[in-house]
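Minutes, project check-in
Item: structure for the 84-residue chain
Input as provided by the requester:
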Amino acid sequence: METFDQMVNEKYEPTEKDELVLKALKKGRSEDDPWGRANPRWLMDETGLEKSNVEFCLRSLTDAGWIRRVARGLYEFVEDPREA
Protein backbone atom coordinates (compact mmCIF):
# COMPACT_ATOMS: atom_id res chain seq x y z
CA MET A 1 0.00 0.00 0.00
CA GLU A 2 1.31 3.39 -0.96
CA THR A 3 1.54 5.94 1.82
CA PHE A 4 1.61 9.69 1.56
CA ASP A 5 1.28 12.62 3.90
CA GLN A 6 -2.19 14.05 3.75
CA MET A 7 -3.05 17.47 5.02
CA VAL A 8 -5.47 17.57 7.92
CA ASN A 9 -8.72 19.29 6.97
CA GLU A 10 -9.10 21.75 9.84
CA LYS A 11 -12.52 22.83 8.55
CA TYR A 12 -14.03 19.36 8.78
CA GLU A 13 -16.83 19.25 11.34
CA PRO A 14 -17.21 15.74 12.79
CA THR A 15 -20.69 14.34 13.22
CA GLU A 16 -21.86 12.94 16.56
CA LYS A 17 -20.97 9.47 15.31
CA ASP A 18 -17.52 10.65 14.16
CA GLU A 19 -17.01 12.01 17.67
CA LEU A 20 -17.74 8.57 19.14
CA VAL A 21 -15.11 7.01 16.87
CA LEU A 22 -12.57 9.72 17.71
CA LYS A 23 -13.24 9.30 21.44
CA ALA A 24 -12.68 5.54 21.13
CA LEU A 25 -9.42 6.07 19.22
CA LYS A 26 -8.18 8.52 21.87
CA LYS A 27 -9.16 6.22 24.76
CA GLY A 28 -6.18 5.37 26.96
CA ARG A 29 -3.81 8.15 25.93
CA SER A 30 -4.11 10.06 29.22
CA GLU A 31 -3.47 6.83 31.18
CA ASP A 32 -0.34 5.98 29.17
CA ASP A 33 -2.11 2.90 27.81
CA PRO A 34 -1.79 1.82 24.19
CA TRP A 35 -4.13 4.00 22.13
CA GLY A 36 -4.73 5.46 18.70
CA ARG A 37 -5.13 2.30 16.60
CA ALA A 38 -8.23 0.19 16.12
CA ASN A 39 -10.10 -2.05 13.75
CA PRO A 40 -13.76 -1.60 12.80
CA ARG A 41 -14.94 -4.50 14.99
CA TRP A 42 -13.40 -2.98 18.12
CA LEU A 43 -14.85 0.43 17.21
CA MET A 44 -18.30 -1.14 16.83
CA ASP A 45 -18.01 -2.70 20.29
CA GLU A 46 -16.62 0.48 21.84
CA THR A 47 -19.11 2.94 20.32
CA GLY A 48 -22.25 0.82 19.97
CA LEU A 49 -22.50 1.91 16.32
CA GLU A 50 -23.49 -0.46 13.55
CA LYS A 51 -20.89 -1.65 11.04
CA SER A 52 -22.14 0.63 8.26
CA ASN A 53 -21.96 3.67 10.56
CA VAL A 54 -18.43 2.86 11.71
CA GLU A 55 -17.31 2.34 8.11
CA PHE A 56 -18.86 5.65 7.05
CA CYS A 57 -17.14 7.47 9.93
CA LEU A 58 -13.80 5.85 9.11
CA ARG A 59 -14.13 6.95 5.48
CA SER A 60 -15.10 10.50 6.45
CA LEU A 61 -12.35 10.89 9.04
CA THR A 62 -9.77 9.38 6.68
CA ASP A 63 -10.82 11.73 3.88
CA ALA A 64 -10.47 14.63 6.33
CA GLY A 65 -6.97 13.46 7.32
CA TRP A 66 -7.84 13.07 11.01
CA ILE A 67 -7.13 9.32 10.87
CA ARG A 68 -5.36 7.07 8.36
CA ARG A 69 -5.60 3.48 7.25
CA VAL A 70 -2.30 1.82 8.13
CA ALA A 71 -3.23 -1.67 6.95
CA ARG A 72 -6.29 -3.52 5.77
CA GLY A 73 -8.78 -3.23 8.62
CA LEU A 74 -6.51 -1.11 10.84
CA TYR A 75 -6.91 2.61 11.39
CA GLU A 76 -4.75 5.08 13.30
CA PHE A 77 -5.52 8.45 14.86
CA VAL A 78 -3.49 11.24 13.22
CA GLU A 79 -4.64 14.57 14.60
CA ASP A 80 -7.61 16.46 15.94
CA PRO A 81 -6.95 20.06 14.88
CA ARG A 82 -9.37 21.32 17.53
CA GLU A 83 -6.82 20.29 20.18
CA ALA A 84 -4.06 22.51 18.82
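Outcome recorded: Helices lie at 16-26, 40-47, 51-63.
No further action items on this chain.
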